[in-house]
Amino acid sequence: MEAHAISIAEVEALQPSRPEVTLHRNRRILIAEDDVAMRRLIAAALRAAGHRVVEASDGAEVLDRIESTIWAERLDLFGLIISDMAMPALSGLDVLAALRCIEVPTPFILITAFGDDDVRREALALGAAAVLDKPLDLETLQAAVDGVLRPGDGDAMERGRSRRVPKPPTYRH
After folding, report:
1. Side-chain half-sphere exposure of 142, counting CA atoms within 13 A
2. Per-residue pLDDT reduced to its tens digit, 127-171
3. What is the CATH number for 154?
4. Cα–Cα distance, 35 to 42 (Å, whole number)
5. Total domain count, the chain
6. 73 domain-assigned
C-alpha cells in the first residue's frame, strides 16, 4: 500500500467550520471614591462613554462587593475597579493589596491626590493598570479606562489572570 501525503489545506478542508467567537468585554466598572461629588463626576463621565458603573463610598464597600461576587462565583462581574487612594477605613492601596492577596485579578486604576512616587511604584508593583493624579483630567481617565477595556485586546479578566501577581507588602499605618 502506497502512503499518500496530505497537505495542510486538505486537512483544514476536512475540519468542520467553527463559528466566530466574540469575547465579551465587561464594561461594568466599580468606582470607589469617598468624595460624593468626585464619585458622581467620574461615574457620569464613564456612563456617558457607554460603561455601566457601580459606585462605592470607601474601600471596605469595594471589598464587600467583591466578596459577594466571589460567593456568587461571578468574578467577571466587574471589568475594572477605579479607586481613590485616601478613603476612610481602607486606602485604595490597601484595597488593591487585599484583592491581589485573595487572587482577584480584576484590573485596577488608582487615583491619588498625593502624587507620591512611592505610592505609584507600590501600586504598579501590585499590578495596578494605571495610577492617575488629582486633579483628575477626565480625558486622561477615559484613555486609561480604554487602555484596560479596549476592544480587540481580549477580555480584561483574561489579561488580569495572565499576569503573575506579586505578594502584597505589609502596611504600616
Report:
1. 13
2. 999 999 999 999 999 999 999 987 554 444 344 433 333 444 444
3. 3.40.50.2300
4. 11
5. 1
6. yes
